[in-house]
Backbone:
């Protein structure tokens, strides 16, 4: 039951849904997520922690950068199914369309430019 509670908690926030949809396009640096959501890094870190706790995303650290991606085949079945459900139902959402356009511009920038030399976590 704990897995389902964590998943439903993670899905109960629009910003976390936006992150899941953005990660459908591939791995993103935390700075890219911060830029897309236009939130404070500490707020984004909390969102990412909740998504990781639910098993919906995975993280890797590369130097001072932290990268996130959707949980892969090794993730628990409920987490994989939840991500697919979100992707199916939000594919045509206007906010997701705006985020996709914004991400195209963000992905042209380097993490160094986005983070301004700050330590990304």
Residues:
């Amino acid at each position: 039951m704990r897995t389902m509670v964590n998943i439903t908690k993670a899905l109960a926030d629009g910003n976390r849904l936006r992150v899941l949809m953005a990660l459908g396009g591939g791995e993103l640096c935390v700075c890219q997520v911060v830029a897309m959501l236009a939130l404070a890094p500490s707020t984004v870190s909390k969102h990412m922690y909740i998504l990781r706790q639910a098993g919906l995303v995975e993280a890797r650290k590369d130097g001072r950068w932290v990268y996130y991606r959707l949980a892969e085949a090794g993730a628990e079945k409920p987490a994989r199914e939840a991500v697919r459900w979100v992707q199916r139902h939000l594919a045509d959402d206007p906010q997701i369309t705006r985020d996709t356009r914004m991400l195209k511009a963000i992905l042209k920038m380097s993490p160094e430019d986005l983070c301004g030399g700050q330590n990304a976590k």
